[in-house]
């Protein structure tokens, strides 16, 4: 089994195997670039982009994510507005808050953290966000623009995956891509982004019979199922680029816990050409892309809608 911490040695003539794609380092570079964009935006318009993040309830993982979002928003020089609402919040109250944030000129991006408490209509809430402030890209206007190949705000995790893929592989045109998982948050927008890049795209989902038959043909394999360790070496074409979106906390030794992905890292790294680790792969890109979308949204509010 490969040692995940060992330095890479590539011998001339041998195909590269299991190169780790460092999402943490890529996200750090992106944040640096965004910090520069924020300064330039302020110089041009005299305005600092602002991001509002809304959390309903007290899901522990969501609390960590929204705290990190606020922290990183500040770090790149933007304004952060946090709204922590109790689990008992009524849908109507949340919709009123979204309306207030839509009307607030100091706020350029709005995000409602998912999952929402049971009984709330996520679609209704997502669609209540002004499409120009929809930094999650999950509303019907931005989802429709993505499906038509038009510019708009794109969901953060798939956007981050695409950035990693383009930086690793360059032009993706003509490559065979398989996305495992068909969620609105990741799988569907990921498939559309890859299609818009000229890939031949298949989507495997819960009802797909023999998904391995599809995934074994993939040059690019993106896995977003939430089933830890689902994808083993027999799912992967030798030399493929594997992007693991899954992130599950499981018990580890000595009463501790650890994060794992949907891909069995060690065995797949022995076959794949390149692979994202968990943690340190796609996760950090999600928040960096949220910051990037907030700058894009601020530009939209002052410079108009994309064509
Ligand atoms: N409204 C949204 N809700 C949720 C989204 C989203 O994009 N919009 N995505 C996920 C959670 N998420 C951001 O909200 C997120 C997940 C993971 C990470 C991350 O940095 N992970 C690190 C590990 C962090 C840790 O130690 O726990 C990594 O993978 O290296 C950031 C953001 C669901 N909800």
TrEMBL record:
Record's keyword terms, sorted: Amino-acid biosynthesis, Histidine biosynthesis, Hydrolase, Methionine biosynthesis, Multifunctional enzyme, NADP, One-carbon metabolism, Oxidoreductase, Purine biosynthesis
Reaction it catalyzes: (6R)-5,10-methylene-5,6,7,8-tetrahydrofolate + NADP(+) = (6R)-5,10-methenyltetrahydrofolate + NADPH; (6R)-5,10-methenyltetrahydrofolate + H2O = (6R)-10-formyltetrahydrofolate + H(+)
Pathway: One-carbon metabolism; tetrahydrofolate interconversion
GO cellular-component term (any): cytosol
GO biological process terms on file: L-histidine biosynthetic process; methionine biosynthetic process; purine nucleotide biosynthetic process; tetrahydrofolate interconversion
Domain (Tetrahydrofolate dehydrogenase/cyclohydrolase NAD(P)-binding): residue spans on this chain: 155-299
An annotated Gene Ontology molecular function: methenyltetrahydrofolate cyclohydrolase activity
Annotated signal peptide: none
EC number: 1.5.1.5, 3.5.4.9
Stretches assigned to the Tetrahydrofolate dehydrogenase/cyclohydrolase catalytic domain: 21-136
Record has Oxidoreductase as a keyword: yes
Record-linked Pfam families: THF_DHG_CYH, THF_DHG_CYH_C
Amino-acid positions noted as binding NADP(+) in the UniProt annotation, renumbered to this chain: 181-183, 206, 247
Entry keyword annotation includes Signal: no
Function: Catalyzes the oxidation of 5,10-methylenetetrahydrofolate to 5,10-methenyltetrahydrofolate and then the hydrolysis of 5,10-methenyltetrahydrofolate to 10-formyltetrahydrofolate.
Subunit-level organization: Homodimer.
Family: Belongs to the tetrahydrofolate dehydrogenase/cyclohydrolase family.
NCBIfam families xref list: PRK14188.1
Name listed for the protein in its UniProt record: Bifunctional protein FolD
Species for this entry: Acetobacter oeni
Gene, per the UniProt record: folD
